[in-house]
């Protein structure tokens, strides 16, 4: 009988590939496209809103904020491998998200401007 260390050597963890690294780099607020498993129907556009660093669970919501998907990191990486998932560029993100980000940039710039004036 082998020791637990020996047993681990029989089935080593596979090295992370580009898809595992892509999933690891996805942060909260990132929009993704998820195609149905059957390949039929329209892909979902959803946003990552929560991720567990302990279990690798990722929760996505749709444009209305409703839960759209809950996936493990490994499952999402496999979807990327199969071409069933993709990251959305900023221009493809829903309009409301782009508008909110623009508004936040403007407000931050105004706050910085006020602080600079107050410092003079």
UniProtKB/TrEMBL annotation:
It comes from the Bacteria. This is DUF1631 family protein. InterPro entries: DUF1631. Residues 1-22 are annotated as: Disordered. The lineage of its organism: Bacteria, Pseudomonadati, Pseudomonadota, Gammaproteobacteria, Chromatiales. It holds the Pfam family DUF1631. Residues 7-18 have a biased composition (Acidic residues).
């Amino acid at each position: 009988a082998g020791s637990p260390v020996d047993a681990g050597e029989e089935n080593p963890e596979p090295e992370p590939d580009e898809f595992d690294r892509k999933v690891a780099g996805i942060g909260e607020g990132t929009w993704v496209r998820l195609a149905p498993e059957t390949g039929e129907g329209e892909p979902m556009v959803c946003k990552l809103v929560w991720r567990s660093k302990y279990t690798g669970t990722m929760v996505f919501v749709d444009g209305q904020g409703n839960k759209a998907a809950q996936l493990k990191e490994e499952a999402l990486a496999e979807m990327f491998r199969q071409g069933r998932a993709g990251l959305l560029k900023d221009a493809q993100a829903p309009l409301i998200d782009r508008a909110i980000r623009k508004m936040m940039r403007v407000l931050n710039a105004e706050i910085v401007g006020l602080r600079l004036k107050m410092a003079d």
